[in-house]
Structure formats: C-alpha cells, structure tokens
Design brief:
CATH class of the largest domain: Alpha Beta
Order of helices and strands: EHEHEHEHEHEHHHE
Number of helices: 8
Oligomer: single chain
Number of domains: 2
CATH topology of the largest domain: Rossmann fold
CATH architecture of the largest domain: 3-Layer(aba) Sandwich
Largest sheet: 7 strands, parallel
C-alpha cells in the first residue's frame, strides 16, 4: 500500500499493532523508506517525529505523510551523526510528547564506489560516520529515555550487506556489519527491561539509494543493471519501501514482544540462493 493509498487516520486492525497514543521517531525521514515508515506508523495511530538533515525534503515528507494519513507529524532538521543534533531531536520529542515509544534508526548513506586499495580515507570516514556513529548516537540518547519508561522498541536499518560484501563497497559493507554488532550489544544490555532492539536487513528496494548503487554496476546501462539485480531475486523484483515499512512497524509493535537482538531479513529470498 503506497502512502497515497493509506486511509486517513486508519488504525491497524490488529490490536497488538495499534500505535494509538504512542510516539515514533524516524531518522532518515526524508528518504523513501523513512517516508514509508512514517506513513505506516501514522496510519496505525502514532504521532511521528521525522528527522533528516535535508530540510526541504524533510518538510515535503512531513506534508505528504500528514496529508495521506491525517496523522500528527513533526519535522526536526538534524544530522544523525552529530551528538548535539541527536540530543536536540530527542529533547524536542520529549518536550512535545513526553515519551518516545519507537525509534526507527534509519539514516544512512551508500557512499561512492571505490575498491579498498584506492578508497579515500575521507570516503571511509564519511560512510562510517553516518551509518555507524549515527546509529550509535540514536541508541545512546534514546535508550535512556526508554529505559526510564521501561518500554520501547528500536529498529536499526542494516542491510543484506551486513552478511555479504560486494566489490567497491567496502566501507558500506563494513558499516552495515557494524550495525548488527551494535544491535546485538544493545539487545543484550536492555533485555528484560521492557525495551527491545532489532535490525532490519533489506535486500534490493526500489529507492533512490538502490538505483544509485545498481547504476554504478553498469553506468552505461543503469536500467539493464537494475533489471538484472531484480531478476536475481526469487521474487523477480525489488521490494517497495512500503513492504520494508510494514516489517519495521511489526518489529516495533507488541506483536513482536519476544523479538530482541534479531537481524530481520527482508530480501525476497535474495540471500537464500546462490
């Protein structure tokens, strides 16, 4: 179901997936998966705080999701890798709503392709800063809020690149492997507290980032590269952002109350085959 197809104000029919009265924070909220997750949470009754460093795209995302769902959305422009900014979005959420029930720790970048033997140090530092430090800071400053309340769910965005590597994508793969380490460590630390931490590991998803990555596989024929990657999945296609968002919402919900420290593959069977 696309954002445009969400029923205005409609709640999830499953009571344990109802987010009425809850507050969800979504970082990377201006991106395709961030927008879809915001719509999924808002449609289930949550108030949503969208966080992104891209101010105009963030504003557009908020307006689009609010229009489609009738939900309450707040935009906070912030850089997920900056501790001051992270504290600011946490403080803004607490001041407005007094609680954080869900953090979709989703901000990330792919970085430009380069073999490790030629990879510029600043490229490595940039990818690790956004993808790993950003996830860490979200955990660092949201977990105390949740632990005090003795409730909450954090979903970190990892990737199938948390399990396999591709040539020219060393920093990205390293960052996504690291996210699973942070997820597992946090899950062990908060177990039994009423707080859970999991990771979602998408495969090919039809987003701007995925199209950029696949285009780099064959710059002379980006459409062909996209089609060849799609054909490699048992499903024969890329996922939609909404399909990823539905799993994020499940992991954040009471329906997943015994799921903690998991790396949840949503890849259409991509890693199941050769």
């Amino acid at each position: 179901m696309s954002i445009e197809q969400q029923d205005r104000g409609a709640a999830d029919p499953h009571p344990d997936r109802d987010f009425s009265g809850r507050v969800a924070v979504v970082t990377g909220g201006a991106g395709d998966i961030g927008r879809a997750a915001a719509a999924a949470f808002a449609a289930a009754g949550a108030s949503v705080v969208l966080v992104d460093v891209a101010a105009q795209r963030l504003s557009d995302a908020c307006a689009e999701v609010a229009e489609a769902t009738g939900g309450e959305l707040v935009a906070v422009e912030a850089d997920a890798r900056d501790a001051t900014d992270v504290r600011r979005y946490v403080d803004a959420t607490m001041q407005q709503f007094g609680r954080i029930d869900v953090l979709f720790n989703n901000a990330g970048i792919e970085g430009r392709p380069a073999p490790l033997a030629e990879c510029p140090e600043d490229l490595f530092d940039e990818v690790m800063s956004v993808n790993v430090r950003g996830i860490f800071l979200g955990l660092r400053y949201v977990l105390p809020v949740m632990l005090t309340a003795r409730r909450g769910s954090i979903v970190n965005t990892a990737s199938i690149a948390s399990f396999v590597a591709h040539a020219g994508r060393g920093p990205y793969s390293a960052s996504k492997h690291a996210i699973l380490g942070l997820t597992k460590a946090a899950a062990v630390e908060v177990g039994g507290s009423g707080v859970r931490v999991n990771a979602i590991c998408p495969g090919p998803v039809d987003t701007r980032m995925s199209r950029t990555i696949t285009a780099n596989l064959d710059p002379a024929d980006p459409a062909g590269a996209f089609g060849r990657v799609a054909a490699r999945t048992p499903e024969g296609r890329f996922a939609t952002p909404d399909e990823i968002a539905s799993v994020v919402r499940f992991l954040a919900s009471d329906a997943a109350s015994y799921v903690n420290g998991a790396a949840w593959l949503v890849d259409g069977g991509f890693l199941a085959g050769p």
